[in-house]
Amino acid sequence: MSRVAASTEFETVIGLEVHVELSTESKMFCACRVTFGDPPNTHVCPVCLGLPGALPVPNRRAVEYAVRAALALHCEIAPVTKFDRKNYHYPDLPKGYQISQFDRPLGTNGYLDVPLPGGGTRRVRIRRLHLEEDAGKSLHDPRLGTLVDLNRAGVPLIEIVSEPDLRSPEEARAYLQELRNVMLYTGVSDVRMEEGSLRCDANISIRPVGSDAFGTLVEVKNMNSFRAVKQALEYEAERQRAVVLSGERVVRETRHWNERAGQTTPSRSKEEAHDYRYFPEPDLVPLRLDADWVEQIRRSLPELPAERRARYERLGLSAYDASVLVDQRPLADFFDACLDRGADAKQAANWVMVELQGYLNETGETLADTRMTPEGLVALLRLIEEGTITGKIAKEIFPELVRTGGDPRSIVEARGLVQIADREALYAVVKEVLAQNPAAVEDYRKGKTNAVGFLVGQVMKATRGRANPALANELVRQALEE
Ligand SMILES: [Zn+2]
To answer: 35 CA to middle of ligand 1, Å?
Structure first.
């Protein structure tokens, strides 16, 4: 880039490479179990250790999951695909190579429509999706030095490479969120970022707004959370901008995000030389994917997040509410179960998003930890609808309903919370309240109409929230006029 004026506006250009660990029961090329958190090196065998003479055998389920993910991302599926050796030296890779896919990836030319935080969507093209095996994990112990755990070595991964179609760190985060949703909905991965089953590297450059040319790419690694992705890319875009404005050149390099320091730093390791000397894996024949089998997988795809959001919007939910539900699949499934039982969409969405989510946030529990059932919530909504309880009472008993999972009607009756909608009974309470608040009654007679609100409040208080609010209001006015 030549000298740029300080007033130049820049645009950020981002492409992401995402690794997703597949939720298979066994590893990519051997029968070792896939687990998380087991004692180090308890799930290893000659194949995943790469011992001489050990022969890899592809895991059919892993191939199926990769095809499933590729189809959900609208990729073309290669009828014939092959495995290659990616050679590099690293302590957590004792065999010295990783089995991956080089020139014939399983999926190509896909896309993902990403809902943007400010509304609208951006279509991000997927360049490729390929299968590979994971490496092991280095553990750093202050006393013993660096130790290697190979339980993860050989776990099936897919790598999803996007085109540089993202235009801000915020969009990159939204892309990642949506990609995570798709993986979750298709069931190919549990995508737990904190357990490393979703990992992300980014290519980022900047260019003056209006320019079509790409700036110098910097690769950013080691971003371990959605928040880290956004922060790291914000830092990096700003850093590149400062470099360009000072008249210098951005250096093509790999940088690591240092979360604690809040900055990216150049990676100095030698293995970043990127000469992987790929060659076809000699122990595996090319993989032929039967067209009927692929078609069968396509037909078995569930409703995807974008379709689910669209369906919720057709039910009258706002785009924001639809996204909140879809981003948390257990809540969305719960909401759907309520709809199946005849709940009103807006009402149910409101209770799921405000009361239920509020309860979960407050207690730190997940929906599965609770006894809350769709039947319970639908029954509660029905009690409000038919006037047996007020919305206020419903909110009051809600936590008990979540904890015990009982029948809301029994809870209401046991606690004596049935709404007072009986005119005569409520009128008696109103008369009593007026007798106890002569000052407010006097105010009303002097023309201060807001005294009505105060008196209705007192009636609600006297009935512990059980009075029908509209009736209470009507009866207070009637009593004041007498
Ligand atoms: Zn093994």
So the answer is: 12
